[in-house]
Design goal:
globular; alpha+beta
């Protein structure tokens, strides 16, 4: 019986000991804006130690939004795309014009984003947002090689059926009310790996 050894990529991924959680599964009618804090504040909000990397991700199920990282240009994230903030930088997610974004801590406590005076006529955005929690591995080549904002298609991409299925299964599991159960946690690991 011949066993093949893991690839360097799999070794690097295993070294990160990926876990995570879904923090938000909502549909928002524009205009809306949410400010997501940087990694240190997210670590505090989630109660994880300094040795853990916290990388926010935002999966768009329907609609789209503008992602504006601190000191970077805005980028549109559309349906069936996921964006991962690989350096844990603070950023704003928005659709339409809103005077002041709602802080993510308030969203985490159940508050809805504040709206401007009237609906914009734009389509709603359905989001699944969470964090990948990674073992802090400063010499891990996988983390060091990623751009600060990583945008990936999760559907219709030739050669990536596992990513499509992982995104679909995660959305189904969370949509059935099992946001922080055993299955959702394992699906987050698979989603991150894919």
């Amino acid at each position: 019986m011949s066993l093949t050894s893991p690839s360097p990529f799999e070794d690097a991924l295993a070294d990160l000991r990926v876990s995570g959680s879904v923090l938000l599964f909502e549909s928002y009618q524009p205009p809306w804006a949410i400010s997501v804090p940087g990694e240190d504040e997210l670590r505090h909000l989630l109660g994880v130690g300094a040795q853990t990397r916290v990388l926010p991700f935002h999966l768009v199920i329907e609609g789209a939004f503008e992602l504006t990282p601190k000191n970077c240009a805005s980028e549109t994230i559309s349906a069936h795309e996921v964006v991962i903030c690989t350096r844990g930088d603070e950023h704003v997610m928005s659709v339409g014009r809103v005077r002041k974004p709602t802080p993510f801590a308030a969203i985490h406590m159940g508050q809805r984003p504040g709206y401007a005076s009237a609906p914009s006529g734009l389509a709603p955005t359905k989001l699944l947002c969470g964090v990948f929690l990674l073992n802090s591995a400063p010499l891990n080549p996988l983390l060091g090689s990623l751009p600060p904002v990583l945008k990936i298609m999760t559907a219709g991409v030739p050669g990536s059926p596992m990513l499509t299925r992982a995104a679909e299964m995660l959305a189904l599991e969370v949509g059935s009310g099992n946001r922080n159960g055993f299955t959702a946690a394992r699906l987050i690991e698979v989603f991150c790996a894919e």
